[in-house]
Amino acid sequence: MIMLAMVLTSVGLPVDGIALVAGVDRIFDMARTTVNITGDAACTMVVSNLEAKREAKKS
């Protein structure tokens, strides 16, 4: 947020816009976190299934 304030000031935009960005960023952050966790869980399931098939093949 501090860097955003500096950028807004250097560009000549009002610093009051930070409150709007902070309020909306929370929603986007939750969406990014959801996508990240879903992707991690999907990859974990794929690797787990591949490992199970590999172990079954060895036996």
Which helices and strands, and how do they pair?
Blueprint: H1 2-11, H2 17-58
What do you see in this structure?
With 59 residues, the protein is mostly helical. The chain has a domain at 22-59. Helix content is 88%, strand content 0%. The protein has helices at residues 2-11, 17-58. It is rod-shaped.
Using brief descriptors, characterize the structure shown.
mainly alpha, 59 residues
Assembly state (oligomeric): single chain
**What share of the residues does DSSP label as strand, in percent?**
under 5%
Overall, the morphology is rod-shaped
User: If helices are DSSP runs of H or I spanning 4 or more residues, what is the number of helices?
Assistant: 2
The main sheet comes to:
none
Please provide the count of β strands: 0
What is the gyration radius calculated from CA atoms?
A: 22 Å
Average pLDDT over all residues: 90
Helix content: over 70%
SSE string, helices as H and strands as E? HH
